[in-house]
Amino acid sequence: MSVNKMSRLFVFVLALTLVTGSAFAQTVVTQSGQTSVQLASGFLSALNTLKVTPGVLNPTTISSKAVVTFPITGGAVDAKTAAGQITHAGGLTLTAGGTTVALRNFTIDTTGTTPILYGVASVNGSVAGALPLFEVQLPKVFPLPLKPLDGAFINLSGFGLALTDTAASTLNSVFGVTAFSGGFKVGTATVQAFVVAN
Fold first, then answer.
1. Residue spans of alpha helices (H) in the chain
2. What percentage of the chain carries pLDDT values higher than 90?
3. Of 157, 24, 138, which is closest to residue 81 (Cα–Cα)?
4. What's the domain count of the chain?
5. Euclidean distance between CA atoms 90 and 71, whole angstroms
6. Lowest-confidence segment of 2-16, 28-42, 116-130, 153-167 by average pLDDT
7. In whole angstroms, what is the distance from residue 147 CA to residue 8 CA?
């Protein structure tokens, strides 16, 4: 299987089709759920060294064990091609001194050759625009076909998130550092989502 085909399969983690007989529905709508990210120790160490404090934007939450949880708000995908988008509420903040970078309205987009998590970035309240923030990395074991529990719920884990070149360059520029680079591991995601066929 090609890298492109494997990458496009990621969308099934967020929006798996319901099975009617032996056929998949054409379009799948994600109604609700959450994506939780265990922030990587290396990422947290880098932030600590740079004296950058992570935070969250409501309704995102962060636990004492550095697990960040983003509510899923919607999305739709083509079940045959796995092309689509999944949206989330809330976001992250990174603060150092008098500078705060806010990353919000995360959208996982699988319409390209590589799954990318996009977000709207702002610096001290001034919107910089929508940026490709994280590359989504598939786990080594990705069994197919995937089937939702009880016909409508999925719970999968082991998906890596790594900074894109754009995100790394932006963080370096804003905070005046050189510590971040493309491919820098941010964390590992677990997805729990309720889906319906449409």
1. 3-8, 11-14, 41-49, 165-175
2. 56
3. 24
4. 1
5. 7
6. 2-16
7. 17
Higher pLDDT, 22 or 102: 102
pLDDT mean over 66-94: 84
- Which stretch of DSSP H or E encloses residue 186? strand 185-197
Nearest Cα to Cα of residue 138 among 80, 90, 191: 191
Write out the residue range of the structural domain in which residue 91 sits.
3-197
Two structure tokens written together for 1: 């299987």
Sign of CA dihedral 47, 96, 182, 56: positive
> Cβ(119)–Cβ(107) under 8 Å?
yes
pLDDT, position 156: 73
Rounded to a whole number of angstroms, the CA Rg of the chain reads 17
Comparing CA positions, the residue from 160, 156, 157, 169 lying closest to residue 195 is 156
Tell me how far CA of residue 137 lies from CA of 74, 101, 125, 129, in angstroms.
21, 24, 30, 24
Beta bridge partners of 99: 96
> Which residues are CB-contacts of 5 (< 8 A; sequence separation ≥ 6)?
none
